[in-house]
């Protein structure tokens, strides 16, 4: 914006121009509005399939518009776990993720503000019923893959400190001398519940010059 806020004029709650502010993410922005003493006015609405629009009131009563871009679908896997808080600490330690919820029943873990993993207690039903069958093997046929891990060597060291069972030690994909393919390194381990977790360095990090 160009200009400045003035505080010597009365709030324009029923008329006047509306300032529209662009935000990166809709949900966190609305939470910050409420946390700062503002009010969200109604549900956001989709504008031509391209952007989300929402109207809020600031603490003084001024109406402000929020514009947030529509994003493509993103994977946000949810794991049924025995101990949500212990699993949260494990993933935070291994990958440097940040807690966005906390608690013994449900957790959201972020990477640079983006939701990448959800944890749910396998005995808690909430509104959707129990997630998974506690009597069956977890994650059969599914790999929980975390790519673009820049500090791959440090992540390997953290996995050792966590005493994570190793399924495949650090290795290059593809193997040495078999071309460049993704040209990264991988570590395959088990998490505390037995899910297979793959930590991979950025594609090209293990590039072989010809």
In words, what does this structure look like?
- The chain folds into 3 domains: 19-69, 2,3-Dihydroxybiphenyl 1,2-Dioxygenase, domain 1; 73-136, 2-Layer Sandwich (Signal recognition particle alu RNA binding heterodimer, srp9/1); 140-210, Signal recognition particle alu RNA binding heterodimer, srp9/1.
- 15% of the residues lie in helices and 34% in strands.
- It has a 4-stranded mixed sheet with strand order 1-4-3-2, covered by helices on one side. The protein has a 4-stranded mixed sheet with strand order 5-8-7-6, covered by helices on one side. A 4-stranded mixed sheet has the order 9-12-11-10, with helices on one face.
- It is elongated and about 70 Å long.
- The chain has 210 residues and is of the alpha/beta class.
Write the layout of secondary structure elements.
Layout: E1 19-22, H1 26-35, E2 39-47, E3 51-57, E4 63-69, E5 78-81, H2 84-95, E6 98-99, E7 106-111, E8 114-121, E9 143-146, H3 152-161, E10 166-173, E11 184-190, E12 196-200
Parallel strand pairs: 1-4, 5-8, 9-12
Antiparallel strand pairs: 2-3, 3-4, 6-7, 7-8, 10-11, 11-12
- Terminal CA distance reads 51 Å
Order of helices and strands: EHEEEEHEEEEHEEE
Low-confidence stretches: none
Helix/strand-derived class? alpha/beta
Count structural domains.
3
């Amino acid at each position: 914006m160009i200009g400045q806020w003035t505080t010597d004029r009365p709030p324009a709650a029923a008329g006047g121009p509306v300032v529209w502010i662009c935000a990166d993410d809709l949900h966190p922005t609305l939470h910050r509005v409420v946390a700062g003493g503002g009010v969200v006015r109604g549900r956001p609405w989709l504008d031509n399939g391209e952007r989300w629009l929402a109207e809020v009131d600031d603490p003084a009563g001024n109406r402000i518009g929020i514009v947030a871009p529509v994003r493509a679908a993103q994977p946000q896997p949810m794991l049924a776990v025995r101990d949500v808080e212990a699993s949260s600490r494990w993933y935070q330690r291994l990958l440097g993720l940040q807690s966005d919820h906390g608690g013994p029943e449900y957790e959201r873990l972020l990477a640079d503000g983006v939701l990448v993993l959800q944890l749910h207690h396998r005995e808690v039903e909430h509104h959707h019923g129990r997630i998974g069958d506690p009597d069956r093997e977890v994650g059969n046929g599914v790999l929980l893959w975390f790519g673009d891990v820049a500090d791959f060597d440090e992540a390997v060291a953290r996995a050792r400190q966590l005493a994570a069972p190793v399924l495949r030690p650090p290795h290059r994909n593809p193997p040495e001398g078999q071309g460049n393919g993704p040209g990264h390194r991988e570590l395959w381990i088990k998490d505390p519940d037995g899910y297979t977790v793959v930590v991979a360095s950025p594609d090209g990090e293990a590039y072989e010059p010809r």
